[in-house]
Batch of 2 targets.
Target 1
Amino acid sequence: MKPFFQIQLALLLFIVLPYGANAQFKWPNGAKAAICMTYDDALDGQLNYAIPQLDSAGFKGTFFCTGSSPSLYRRLDEWRKAAANGHELGNHTLFHPCLRVKPNGTHSDWVKPEYDLQTYTFPQLLNELKTANTLLKAIDGKEARTYGYTCSDCTLGGGVSFTDSIKKLFTAARSDGQVPETMKGYDIYKTPSWGVNSNSAEEMIAYINKARDKGTIAVFMFHSVGGGYLNTTAEEHRKLVEYISKNRKDFYVATFQEVMNYIRDHSK
Ligand SMILES: [Zn+2]
């Protein structure tokens, strides 16, 4: 390349790069990344351990509640109190339908045939989601709602995506996937999240620090806390919350809905 063109290229990169892929998304209060602590299936351990730990640090979590959850029935007052204290109750269907066979061929044999998303129709799914919204409104009085895809499944039978069909019902939706490299093109209706399973606090801290390095977002998808399936021990959860609390100037920690609304309002 001739020196003249090298200089022109260097000038072009100097002008373009700050507005291109390397431009940092601006989080509130100078934070370097966002963190969403989300919890699925409305499980007792979330009331017993996760919420008290979040409360002690002043953080708000998001709880994607399955309508048929026994904990939601037995401890309804405690779920309602958590919502009144600023935690978010998200929609996670009524009956937790999932694909028994995913598009990549993996099997989830625990999914009962009657709750196989493969056999659901669009109207059936939408009615279930609307009814779950009604149930949650009866608990927390709210109409704006986010959705956590059950098993992160975004399709019905035949691989037909239902993401577009649910946009009227929800302000945002959580799926699964890696920490994004950039906030450019971030889809708030298919946000990546990490389904933790028996992970250490060190591993979870590495995950949020990856988001901090990239200037993007870390969304946790917890299930059981303090014992149960897809578990995080109460101790590891506590260490994670304490680490975030000690480094709170670096992180914008808020409910899934609040963070997604922020991204929606600050993305061009
Ligand atoms: Zn679930």
Target 2
Amino acid sequence: MKIIGVSASPRKNQSTYYALQQCLEEITLSAKSAGKNIEVEIVDLAGMKISGCISCDACKKDLVCSQKDDFQELIPKFADPEIAGIIIASPVYMGCMSSQAKAFIDRSVLFRRNRFMFRNKVGGAIAVGGSRNGGQELTIQAIHAGMMIHDMIIVGNDNHFGGMVWGNHPDGYKADATGITTARNLGRRMAEVALMIS
Ligand SMILES: Cc1cc2nc3c(=O)[nH]c(=O)nc-3n(C[C@H](O)[C@H](O)[C@H](O)COP(=O)(O)O)c2cc1C
């Protein structure tokens, strides 16, 4: 069993990536304490070129995409039946998700059009904003909307919506203990529900 985290910041190794790492670390620990193993992996969209969907409808016939960009390498990766869950982590841009996150979600329509391949996979979201309350909740809800359209099973951070992190914490994003705890709790819920379903 595997859970994949998508880091949808254009910046490598910054706050979004860190929050996602924390979440995945908790998945590993939670699975271990339940006597199980869940493999985790980060797909980092930073540096990848993924354009928006052009609605050519090639994917209505088969699991293919007509656009020859870096999304091509993600098609076999996300088609892996071992994947039990997907987390999308995005920075907050103008109150919502990054264009990298949106392009990834829009292009993922090919998995829906080919037998709802994400159906019943566990889904979770993380949003990192420069402000404490800069649109994290809306960003998470927008990511959840895409996951619902895939008929995924959405989980939060045990009482709210998911990982909500303050990137510009005065002592640095790693010092945002409250926010990092939400990301870790999302990981715990992801593991719990993925194991329950399996
Ligand atoms: C184009 C742009 C728009 C942004 N809009 C918001 C916003 O609406 N709300 C917010 O809290 N932060 C906003 N930010 C700040 C980022 O969310 C913040 O710096 C975040 O930590 C970046 O994630 P990263 O460190 O993984 O790159 C914006 C940043 C950029 C570049």
